[in-house]
Amino acid sequence: MKRLCIFLLLIMSICSTVCAQQPEWTYPLAPEILKDSAGYITLANKECLLDEKYVPQDLEDAKVRSVVDDPVRKAVNEALVTMFEAAEQEGYKLYLKSAYRSYQTQETMYFNRLEKNHGKDDGWVAYPGSSDHQTGLGVDVLNYAWTKKDGMNEKFALEDEAQWMAEYCWDYGFVIRYMEDKEDVTKINYEPWHLRYVGLEVAQYMKEKHFSLEEFTQDWQSYIAEYEQNGGDFEKLLHERAQINATVVGYSEDGEEEVELAHNYR
């Protein structure tokens, strides 16, 4: 019991240190989510261009019904499988039409579009480096009829499958990347077929706030800036939380009893 008491005191000491040195974290999402080591909330647009050499490290073949050979990131794959199965149980058959797209492919598509439109950017093809598809987290999901169409437009929103996705994609970690009433923010036309994986907790928060990814990025970055202006240290907070969340194992004096302690909080 003596060693166990020492471990308990250690945990209490760490907690007291965190509380004493850092302002209270009140943002609805945990700091670790905003640290985003996996890149799930990476923003790609004309103001936040991806490097032409950027390629996600965990791309794999899609495991869902698809009309293309485009790979997706592992977490996206798992979420798509779950979402496709749920949709099918409700009578909706979804198809993957587009997923990861390299910088070079996007560049070719963009300039081909400019040539077709006499040099005008009509908002349907993203500028190279600004494409959500290059993150490996953006996917185009359609019904079968629309996979056969040459072009895409907002009329897809009238399809039952599109309406189902608009209501439920958030439950699988996806958001509608380019919403109908956010064109002035995203600078991209409404795309009801374009889903973006951000993770379940972020998706739910964005749905609640009706945020585009641009607005969400501004929201959390502003919070961290304010947190640090108030005396906080975001990187230090992450380190301290990692220490607290680490599993501590203690043994009784006779060596038989093992106790695991993990202090998790937001």
Please give a handful of descriptors for the protein shown.
266 residues; alpha+beta; Muramoyl-pentapeptide Carboxypeptidase, domain 2; 2 domains; two-stranded antiparallel sheet; 10 helices; 42% helix; disordered C terminus
Which secondary structure elements does this structure contain, and how are they paired or packed?
Elements: H1 2-21, H2 31-35, E1 59-61, E2 71-73, H3 74-89, E3 95-98, H4 103-116, E4 138-142, H5 144-147, H6 160-168, E5 174-178, H7 183-186, E6 191-197, H8 200-209, H9 213-229, H10 234-245, E7 248-251, E8 258-261
Antiparallel strand pairs: 1-2, 3-4, 4-6, 5-6, 7-8
Helix pairs in contact: 1-10
Side-by-side strand order of the widest sheet: 3-4-6-5
Number of domain modules: 2
Shape category: globular
Kindly state the mean pLDDT as a whole number? 88
By CATH reckoning, the class of the largest domain would read Alpha Beta
Q: Whole-number radius of gyration?
A: 23 Å
Helix content: 40-55%
Task: Name the CATH architecture of the largest domain.
Answer: 2-Layer Sandwich
Number of helical segments with 4 or more residues? 10
Reported by name, the CATH topology of the largest domain is: Muramoyl-pentapeptide Carboxypeptidase, domain 2
User: What is the rounded distance between the termini?
Assistant: 29 Å
Class by helix and strand content? Answer: alpha+beta
Q: Give the low-pLDDT segments.
A: 259-266
Largest sheet: 4 strands, antiparallel
Number of separate strands: 8
State which percent range the strand residues make up: 5-15%
